[in-house]
Amino acid sequence: MRRIELYFPGEPGSATDWQKRVRLTAPKRLPKMFRPYDCPVALTVNFSFTLPPSCAHGRRLIQERGVEFWKETRPVLTDQLLKDLGRALTGIVWTRKTRVCRIAAAKTYGAKPGITVIVEPLEAMILPGGKTDESAFF
């Protein structure tokens, strides 16, 4: 299996609205004959929001040139956004929520509001000494 990249346009709003939108549109954005990953996966996610009108004119100009700014206000990245995304894509992109083993996530203001998700299957870990067995951890 190879990595997939999904983009869901529109600003994440209330949890039920965007979660429902992602759940309904995700199957249409996947490659034909896609089967949910039934292996450990890594996620790279960016939640992009519209810059509020109250921001300085200069920031808006910079944003229009492709620069993004960190969003330090609600919604909370870990408690709300990632949790809701996991619920929306479980059973569609991966088989169980426990399959997500690594996450890199960001919450930004950008010119193009939406959610970008990159999902990659994880290879077996190569441990020191060349071991790949999980029992080496115990």
Protein topology:
Blueprint (H helix, E strand, L loop, with lengths): L3 E6 L5 H15 L11 E9 L7 H8 L4 E2 L6 H13 L10 E10 L4 E8 L17
Parallel strand pairs: 2-4
Antiparallel strand pairs: 1-5, 2-5, 3-4
Helix pairs in contact: 1-3
SSE ordering: EHEHEHEE
Low-confidence stretches: none
* Largest sheet report: 5 strands, mixed
Number of domains: 1
Mean pLDDT: 85
Helical content band: 25-40%
CATH architecture: 2-Layer Sandwich
Please tally the helical runs, counting DSSP H or I stretches of 4 or more residues: 3
DSSP strand count: 5
The structure class reads alpha+beta
Q: How large a portion of the residues is in β-strands, by DSSP E? A: 25-35%
Whole-Å distance between the termini? 29 Å
Q: What order do the strands of the largest sheet run in, or round the barrel if closed?
A: 1-5-2-4-3
CATH topology: 60s Ribosomal Protein L30, Chain: A
CATH structural class: Alpha Beta
What is the approximate shape?
globular
Radius of gyration, in Å, reads 17 Å
Oligomer: single chain
Walk me through this protein's architecture.
The protein is of the alpha+beta class and 138 residues long. It has a single domain (4-137), classed as 60s Ribosomal Protein L30, Chain: A (2-Layer Sandwich), CATH 3.30.1330. 26% of the residues lie in helices and 25% in strands. It has 3 helices and 5 strands, in the order βαβαβαββ. The protein has a 5-stranded mixed β-sheet, with helices on one face. Helix 1 crosses helix 3 (77-89). It is globular and about 55 Å long. The two termini are 29 Å apart.
